[in-house]
């Protein structure tokens, strides 16, 4: 059976990834499950660069296909902050409750489309032969007035999708995977993997 390592230790992310890629005949391991402990410096200037930095670093330690993602929240009224710094926004160890509260506070007085935002996800694949691929996807929405929902992680409780009249943390997992930035990017990458693994 083929093996893919996904360069993350985020359990919530791994759950989504396994669900979306479950129809590939492949074992998907997190870095921890693969016994890899690497401190990767994400110093790229774009989501693509950061995803490739992670994928390459782990590929150099493991002789198999490595996937990595770089994703984040872009808030238009905040000059697309936190962007590529989403995970490190306000400091590495700052809770998302505090990050979310800070973003809501900074948008005080803005309404509707003035609160426009998007989630961006880039999935990078680094193959043992040295070739690489990236796929990018987004989901458009707005910053909610207050956090809502228990089903997501990170910025999900404040990311409101007008079409569904709820935040991504209020969506059922299956529905979220269908419309999310990560779901769309992973499905695009899944086609690349299918062709490479036949």
Q: Summary?
A:
It is built from 5 helices and 8 strands. With 198 residues, the chain is of the alpha+beta class.
Description:
It is a single chain. The protein is of the alpha+beta class. The chain has one domain: Maf protein (Alpha-Beta Complex). The chain is 29% helix and 26% strand. Strands 1, 2, 3, 4, 5, 6, 7 and 8 form an 8-stranded mixed sheet that branches. Helix 4 packs across helix 5. The two termini are 12 Å apart.
Category from helices, strands and their pairing: alpha+beta
C-alpha-based Rg, rounded: 17 Å
Q: How many structural domains in the coordinates? A: 1
Rounded to the nearest angstrom, the distance between the terminal CA atoms is 12 Å
Strand content: 25-35%
What is the number of helical segments per DSSP (H or I, 4+ residues)? 5
Mean pLDDT metric: 93
Helix content: 25-40%
Shape: globular
The major pleated sheet works out as: 8 strands, mixed
Give, in order, the helices and strands: EHEHEEHEEEEHH
Structure summary, number of beta strands: 8
Q: Spans with pLDDT under 50 lasting ≥5 residues?
A: none
